[in-house]
Amino acid sequence: MRVIRPVRPPPSVEHMSPQHTDGPDLEVRDLTRVFGAGPVRAVDGVSFTAPSGLLTGFVGANGAGKTTTMRMIMGVLAITSGEVRFGGRPATTQDRRTFGYMPEERGLYPKQAVLDQLVYLARLRGIDATAARAEVLDHLDRLGLAGRARDHVEKLSLGNQQRVQIIAALMGAPRALILDEPFSGLDPAAVEGMVDLLREHTARGVPVLFSSHQLDLVERLCERLVVLKQGRVVADGAPADLQSTGTVRHRLVVSGDAGWARGVPGIHAIDVDGPTALVEAVDDTAVQRLLTTALERGAVHELTPVRPTLAQIYREVTA
Amino acid sequence: MTRSDVGRDTSSAWLLVTQREVVVRALNKSFVVGLLVSLGLIAGLMAFFTWQGSRAETFTVAVEASDTAAAATVAAAAAAARAAADEAEESGGPGAERVEVMVLEVTGDDAARAALEDETADAWLSGGDAGWTLTTLRQPDLELVGLLTATVREEVVAENATAAGTSPEELTAGSELATESLDGDALDPGLIYLTSFVLAFLFFMGAVGSGAMIAGSVIEEKQSRLVEIIATAVPLRHVLAGKILGSSVIALAQNLLFGVVGLAGISFTPWAQALPALSASMVWFVVFFTVGFVAVAALYAVAGALASRTEDLQATTTPLMLLLMGIYVITFSADGVLERVLSFVPVASIVSMPVRVLSGDAQWWEPVVSLLLLVAFAVGAVLVSERAYRGALLQTGGRLTWRQALRAEA
User: What counts of helices (H) and strands (E) characterise chain B?
Assistant: First the structure.
């Protein structure tokens, strides 16, 4: 017998430092958007908080309302009802001008040089030309695009265009970041580089809300998670909390065949494969009963609670 | 986190947008090529007029060596032609083309005929008591016939008068037809027509060309969702203002360039005399165009915003194109009352008023009133367009109509 303790995911660098700071939180309250005369409630009473200094993952199936919510947060789509709050008061147009935003569909001026258009976009945000240039060059350098500064955007690969687009959102020390699928199409190394960049912003106390379909990534990165289904929030919290509210399973490894586990009261064997059994227990007594029975039958090599992955939770809450 | 950067200053965003529009346009390859081609066309046209103006038609008239009367007549005709040409040059305008007459002395009638056959001479004049004959190989040139007929008549009348004991002056006394024009300084109507054509063409090309550019630049941002990034950074009003100003600056610069090259070219043509009047007209045109283009640019920006993809531009810009084309056709062909009315109708007045200024039939206050009407129209167009632009720009569901755009909430 080796361990009988919960196995936590290995503490990663990302999970060590971030904590809720006293900077301004981004909140949405009862946000609703109705489209057309139908009417379709694309977003229906959505409320959640993207706390300052934390990465908040925003997940949900296609059409769940993530993009619509983000567009309302940024003010590019009119809000039917509800409100967006920033720093404890309704977000103003002036507030939003200080937010970094990466829209769902990608695009930049295809026939303009990378440096020129990033400087242009930065200057539109009120940064003076010299500072804008320095900041853009710094970001290009960090994302490995220093050599492409003079190239037209259309000459860049999609992944590189994506990096340029993200740089556009990060210019000028934004006070909040709203990023729609920032990691799609990036290779793992690029994702790491991007995460480091985002961490710098959360370290400044900036709330970062990003949507993604890559649940493993969200699980690894986020301190907060909001799951949307058909325009409603179906889960909201720290990934670890969400995982503990999900059904906990146990894995049992014994010396002989574990088929007997199917007959233990209060235990539902999901899968038995030779000496290994994956079970769901109705309560902790049932787990103890399983362990006692196993010990009576021979050696027990492992009895481990298996925390559901985010993918499982996601499937459960969006089922 | 400091709060110092709350509400960053975006008040000069319009200037940034303007700068970008101008720079991007000025570096656009197809724009530069189009500009150079147009300049080449203007320069070529002027060179053609200059060549045509300076071109002299030379007639070589053969006379038999012994035929002194014919020789004297041809010499007189040559002098008359030179005098007429000099006079035309002084009065300005292209007038009739210059005619030069040369004498080719031949010995014997056969030699004269041979000269006609091998085309060393255009005509053979023989005169004297037997009567005057102009022989040519084919149909005679009417201009030459006219010139020689007048010269021969003058000579013969002079001879007959002397024989009758009187003078040609006495004989022809009272027969002069004096000409008097009420509109003494009137310019060559051909020049006015040509000017109206050129101005209408400049207007049409400038408006449609720059209009298409602004529509393209709007849809580029809309389709790529760049506009969402921009709209969250600065007020959309600034973006529209910058685009209109940027396009207007380019259109103005382009027309100034065309105007300067065209006027410089005209100074080499027989119309050089009309240069002051043409310049005044051109200045009015540039002023009118600049103001009117603001309205056209604003409408084109909306046409761009109504589309949802570049492919929709065709459909959303066609009504404007047709309108401009209609104005183009009607303004260069209009005259009389219609022209007078058009010179006050915004957008059409861009062409019609400068033409009326050139032809001199506009009172001093007329262009001013017309310009004020145009300014009012431009302001109205910009205000309506601004609403439609903001309404349409952030809508992502397919092509929109003006009505939908004006009703839309962001």
Answer: 15, 4
